Amino acid sequence: MGTATRLLTGTALAAAAACLCATPALAADPAALEIDPPRATPGTEVTANTTACGAGGTAAGDASAVGAGAFKLAPSTHQEDAVGQFKIPTSATPGTYAIRAKCVTGREVSGDLVVTLTAPAQVTPKGHVKTGVGGALGPDPVKTAAGVAALAVAAAGGTWLLHRRARGDGI
């Protein structure tokens, strides 16, 4: 019975591995226009890039939906990307905008830009870290002192017991 179970399990694992190997890897959609940063505030410089135009390809970008107008995407040294930049006008209102580009070959791509009024806030840690260990700068110096005293008593007691054992007095 154990051999049959192992045989069935091995067969199932082999079949699953074959399915995973036969499945094409998920790649970035070449028909998309990548926007960086995807969320930005008015006044921010935004970069748009795509691989849809092919190696050495160029494109005409259109950010008029957000009020930035036309921009050009030129070949980049990074793989087969065509890259361009535009600035979000300070008068832009919050929302999601479709940014488009048309390659010289006639292929059209688009991507979404989300305009917000506030930049994502960076959170900095404040206060004490609650690890359960305590510390000299912890919020309760009485507990810290009690812990240090307990450790000192334990160390002294252990030393006394080891000393008695070394003399042969027993424990």
Description:
The chain contains 2 helices and 8 strands. It has helices at residues 2-22, 141-167; strands at residues 34-36, 39-40, 45-50, 59-62, 70-75, 82-87, 95-103, 108-115. Mean pLDDT is 78; it is low at 4-28. The longest helix is centred in the last third of the chain and has 27 residues, at 141-167. A hairpin with a 7-residue loop joins β4 (59-62) and β5. By secondary structure, the protein is α+β, with helices and mostly antiparallel strands. Among the domains are: 34-115, Immunoglobulin-like (Sandwich); 138-171. An 8-stranded mixed sheet has the order 1-3-6-5-4-7-8-2, with no helix packed on it.
Short description:
With 171 residues, the protein is of the alpha+beta class. Among the domains are: 34-115, Macroglobulin (MG2) domain (Immunoglobulin-like, Sandwich), CATH 2.60.40; 138-171. It is 28% helix and 26% strand.
Gap from first CA to last CA: 57 Å
Instruction: Identify the strand order in the major beta sheet.
Output: 1-3-6-5-4-7-8-2
What series of H and E elements makes up the topology?
HEEEEEEEEH
Task: Give the CATH class of the domain at 34-115.
Answer: Mainly Beta
CATH architecture of the domain at 34-115: Sandwich
Tally of individual helices: 2
Content of β-strand: 25-35%
**What structural class do you assign from the helix and strand content?**
alpha+beta
List unreliable stretches of 5+ residues: 4-28
Let me know the largest β-sheet: 8 strands, mixed
What is the average per-residue confidence, as pLDDT, rounded to a whole number?
Answer: 78
Helix amount: 25-40%
What is the number of E strands? 8
Radius of gyration: 33 Å
